[in-house]
Amino acid sequence: MFGCIVAGRLVQTNLQQVDVNKYVFELVDAHNINHIIVFLLGTIPFEPGFAATVHFLWPNKNWQMLGVLSNDKPSAVFRLQPGTENSTTPGVTATLGISIEPINLVEQQYQAHLQSTSNNKPAASPIVIAERILNQVYNFVTSYVSGGSNDMIPLKAFENWYQTTQRKVKADPSFLLKNSE
């Protein structure tokens, strides 16, 4: 029913059923995993009114919700968050879990997950955002200066910065919120 791809590895279809409507994939050498793709094989869709939550488990940790699969969204790519001691320990086997449940419960769990992950991220203050924008402008336009103290910065430098920044924001709306070091 499900397949799993760890980036850079072959497709896994060795799904194990561990309970009614609960399935797992064992992921060897988990310390090398950055992204996981989980998908319905296309042979058996979810029954009407059902969907699945996808979870990840490092050894000796709690299950971490990654996202949702449904007939409308039969595949997803999940980026694993580094930072645990297991993520750097060679030879660790992690577990990918899939739980099929009524779609209303799946939606509730996913909304709670989104709420908890957004609460864990500190909001960037307007001062931090303004400083990052000003640093971006300064670094970009001063690259047009050739040397002397009386050099003029052409208006084209600001236009180029503006267009470049617009492209970056469209590609990643939070790029100014990320550490720029």
UniProtKB/TrEMBL annotation:
Boundaries of every Hikeshi-like C-terminal domain copy: 127-176
InterPro entries: Hikeshi-like_C, Hikeshi-like_N, OPI10
Domain Hikeshi-like N-terminal: 5-113
PANTHER family recorded: HIKESHI FAMILY MEMBER, PROTEIN HIKESHI
Family of this protein: Belongs to the OPI10 family.
Full protein name: Hikeshi-like domain-containing protein
